[in-house]
């Protein structure tokens, strides 16, 4: 399965990244996925649930940002966003363009981690008596 190998490599990368923070738990992983990268978000999410079991990523959320396809249109002299992935024509002048500038990304945008719970002891004690003043 295409998505499973993608997710496995994401899990490996994130696991390596958080190895420097013992006890840290991954809360959220954000991905940037180009509209042309031919991955299906549902499959990504499904595989993510399986691939993160027994890793520091277990229980974390996967947030997928789909990036639109952007090509450079020579007649217009600018980068334009395509309305779909079926037609590589500039939406402004209707000229075909294959000068791809964005759309095939598949990268980790950010990783959010939660450090050891002991760090939040103070916050918890403070919020326990909000009525006291
Ligand atoms: Zn154009």
Describe this structure in words.
The N and C termini lie far apart (58 Å). It is built from three helices and six strands. With 133 residues, it is α+β, with helices and mostly antiparallel strands. The strands form two sheets. A three-stranded mixed β-sheet has the order 2-1-6, covered by helices on one side. A three-stranded antiparallel β-sheet has the order 4-3-5, with no helix packed on it. It has helices at residues 2-18, 41-51, 121-127, and strands at residues 25-34, 61-67, 70-73, 78-81, 100-102, 106-114. Zinc ion binds at residues 73, 75-76, 80, 90, 92-93, 95. Zinc ion binds next to loops.
Helix segment count? 3
Task: Specify the oligomeric state.
Answer: single chain
Overall radius of gyration: 21 Å
- Stretches with pLDDT under 50, minimum 5 residues: 120-130
Biggest sheet strand order reads: 2-1-6
SSE map:
Elements: H1 2-18, E1 25-34, H2 41-51, E2 61-67, E3 70-73, E4 78-81, E5 100-102, E6 106-114, H3 121-127
Parallel strand pairs: 1-2
Antiparallel strand pairs: 1-6, 3-4, 3-5
Helix pairs in contact: 1-2
The site of zinc ion (ZN) has 8 residues, from loops.
Offer a few descriptive terms.
6 strands; binds zinc ion; 26% helix; 3 helices; three-stranded mixed β-sheet; 133 residues; alpha+beta
Short description:
The chain has helices spanning 2-18, 41-51, 121-127; strands spanning 25-34, 61-67, 70-73, 78-81, 100-102, 106-114.
């Amino acid at each position: 399965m295409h998505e499973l190998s993608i997710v496995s490599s994401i899990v490996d990368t994130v696991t390596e990244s958080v190895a420097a923070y013992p006890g840290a738990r991954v809360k959220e992983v954000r991905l940037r996925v180009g509209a042309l990268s031919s991955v299906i978000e549902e499959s990504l999410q499904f595989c993510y649930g399986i691939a993160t079991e027994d890793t520091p990523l277990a229980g974390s959320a996967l947030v997928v940002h789909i990036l639109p396809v952007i090509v450079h249109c020579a007649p217009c002299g600018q980068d334009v966003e395509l309305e779909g992935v079926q037609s590589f024509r500039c939406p402004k002048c209707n000229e075909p363009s294959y000068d791809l500038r964005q759309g095939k990304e598949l990268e980790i945008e950010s990783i959010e981690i939660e450090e050891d719970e002991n760090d939040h002891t103070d916050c918890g004690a403070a919020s326990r008596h909000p009525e006291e003043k």
